[in-house]
Specification:
With about 450 residues, the protein is mainly beta. It has six helices and 19 strands. The chain is globular, with a radius of gyration of 21 Å.
């Protein structure tokens, strides 16, 4: 198994390097860019579209994370280029910001949130195979203990639980392949039903558990900060070893995964192989091109380095994307629950997230959360869990919109609600804020 994963890693890394070189060498020709956008749109979701009529509600695998569905109306800034029989794509973002967290336990820090995703698509049989690689330099741009964030918990550093910090993401955040060929049924009554079989394998990737990871959600596109409920909802987006299979039946998809449920350790530049002893299942629906929803359930074996036992996780989410003249609106509602088998207790996280783009250049965004936290004081594990509220409001404006790039400046502010018993540690009314610059591709925005 490890030999297979290692070979897969070497192949995908080699392909991704070649893809980056080809994309970088081709984006200067505007005619090529136009042709690339058109050709790529024709190839999107090729595992279904190439042999089946593509309805406008069918999400594209380039717009989500892992195998999760984001609404088909999502417009993803992306570079796209056909090279021979290959279709190459690249997208990502770099935030450079000053992050000031308030209260006695807060701190200020200059940092960068960043990631790059490369994709290579090639016809294989009746469908196409999609390779995907995601990388992050956050271990250099915000080294441990990571990004200051009040009330954030999850993972460890030097054998201690991380508190009031969000960990940096791994250098290798995804190394995967996805293959979704259509299925032909000879039964006349079912001949018009759209059917496809899905296979997803990853040395580093995302099992069928949770919503679209926060950094890929359209509703969080201008938010550099991870949700406080991240570790209750979508923290498995980087799992070192994933195998997923499923069926697409018209507007529905049902899938299951086996994966390594352990959280990545603090060596952010390594891939930490372990047995695929965790599992999950997910039901997704694409109600229309504007709506998707999912419910998922999973059992994670030994996910926490400092806690014994297993976790059971449930998540449910609804995503909505509505393009309009010179803009769009994206919103997500997410619920996540973790049941700790060892301690026999539940933690819940509730999230509402929304981003609106006006006149193409202007953005306003918000994130509202209620989340249970039981690791704020790791030296005293007998303390109860606390219900924390976080309310973020912000805006951004693109200062530059070239044929290749979008360059924006923005800011946000976060207020909190908490039990009065936390006043001595966090202050009575802590307030946090960020000022940031954001750079990402502008080519290949797809408005459907």
């Amino acid at each position: 198994m490890r030999f297979f994963v290692l070979c897969f890693f070497v192949i995908t890394l080699s392909v991704s390097w070649a893809a980056a070189q080809e994309i970088a060498g081709s984006v200067s020709d505007s005619q090529q860019r136009t042709e690339a956008t058109t050709d790529m749109r024709d190839m999107s979701m090729a595992g279904v579209k190439m042999d089946m009529t593509q309805p406008d509600w069918m999400p594209s695998p380039e717009d989500g994370s892992g195998t999760e569905w984001q609404p088909a109306a999502t417009s993803e800034p992306m570079w796209m280029k056909p090279i021979g029989s290959w279709n190459l794509m690249a997208h990502g973002v770099v935030f450079v910001d000053y992050n000031q967290q308030g209260g006695p336990r807060g701190e200020g820090k200059a940092e960068s949130v960043n990631w790059l995703m490369l994709m290579e698509q090639h016809k294989l049989g009746r469908a196409s195979i999609l390779f995907r690689e995601m990388f992050s330099a956050e271990s250099l741009t915000s080294p441990h203990p990571g990004f200051p964030e009040l009330f954030q918990t999850g993972e460890t550093y030097h054998g201690q639980a991380l508190v009031d910090h969000q960990h940096p993401h791994n250098v290798f955040a995804e190394l995967s392949l996805d293959y979704t060929p259509p299925i032909t049924i000879a039964i006349p009554a079912l001949s018009k039903t759209k059917l496809a079989w899905e296979f997803y394998g990853a040395a580093a990737g995302e099992p069928a558990l949770g919503p679209v990871a926060f950094m890929h959600r359209a509703s969080a596109s201008e938010l550099p900060t991870a949700p406080l409920s991240h570790h209750l909802q979508d923290s498995t987006h980087t799992s070192f070893g994933v195998v997923t299979t499923g069926l697409l039946i018209s507007r529905f998809k049902i899938e299951g995964s086996v994966f390594n449920g352990r959280e990545p350790d603090e060596k952010r530049y390594t891939i930490q192989f372990a047995p695929l002893d965790s599992w999950s299942a997910r039901l997704s629906v694409a109600a229309s091109k504007n709506w998707t929803a999912q419910y998922s359930y999973g059992r994670l074996e030994h996910p926490e380095a400092l806690e014994p036992g297993s976790q059971r996780r449930q998540t449910a989410s609804v995503e909505y994307v509505r393009p309009f003249n010179q803009g769009s609106w994206a919103s997500s509602v997410v619920w996540g629950r973790v049941h700790d088998v060892f301690d026999d207790h539940n933690l819940n996280g509730y999230l509402l997230e929304s981003t609106a783009n006006f006149n193409l250049r202007n953005y306003v965004f918000t994130r509202v959360e209620l989340v249970d936290k039981d690791e704020l004081f790791p030296d005293d594990p007998l303390l109860p869990s606390y219900r924390i509220g976080a309310y973020t409001f912000g805006g951004a404006r693109d200062l530059i919109q070239s044929r290749l790039w979008q360059f924006a400046m923005g800011a946000d502010v976060t207020f909190y609600s908490k039990p009065a018993s936390l006043d001595s540690a966090y202050g009575q009314n802590p307030v946090s804020f960020q000022i940031f610059l954001r750079v990402r591709p502008a080519l290949g925005r797809r408005d459907r």
